[in-house]
Amino acid sequence: MRKISYLLALLLLGGLLFFAFVHKKEDEEGYSVSPSSAQSFPDFTFTGLDGKVYRLSDFKGKIVLLNFWASWCPPCREEMPLFEKVYEDCKKYGFVILAVSMDTNSSLRDNYLKELKPSFLILEGNDDIKLVGLPTSYLIDRNGKVYKVKLGVYREVKEDIEKLLGPNERC
After folding, report:
1. Cα separations in angstroms, 81 against 14, 86, 139
2. Residues 66, 76, 98, 121: which is the catalytic one?
3. For residue 107, what are the domain limits?
4. For 19-69, how does the pLDDT look when each residue is reduced to its tens digit (9 = 90+)?
5. 171 has catalytic annotation
6. Catalytic residue (choose from 49, 73, 116, 171)
7. Residues 60 and 6 in one domain
8. pTM over 0.85
9. For residue range 92-103, what is the model confidence (pLDDT) as tens digits?
10. How many domains are contained in the chain?
């Protein structure tokens, strides 16, 4: 009986280690999908932290990174400084970031933003938004078509923007 208990404990421990390793790999690599055919994104409406109302269609003609994040999310916190750098490098080419905060605690979000000091637009999420996980990003081309969907840290965002800009422009 004691051997069976040890065997079950060993199997349980092995399973936990296996799933922890798989989860760590997911966190490091994330998942991305490039739609096989051009798909438009719904014309969402968001309220900015500045109180203004923004529609996704307001940014047609620009390359848009629509990012869903939260201040309590470690991968989100990892990618936000990267996004700031890419935004500063690429905004002159018509690149915008719409960072939608999914925080339910606005004071935690605001404290994080005071620390980060992003120069791109921060928007408020709402309960109508259903996501698989955070961070989730959508890179949308100048025609309003989804170029890429990324779940996890979007480290290759600058390379993807440059692909959308074409061979003669680099940011």
Report:
1. 36, 9, 17
2. 76
3. 34-165
4. 334 334 444 557 777 776 678 878 999 999 999 999 999 999 999 999 999
5. no
6. 73
7. no
8. no
9. 999 999 999 999
10. 2
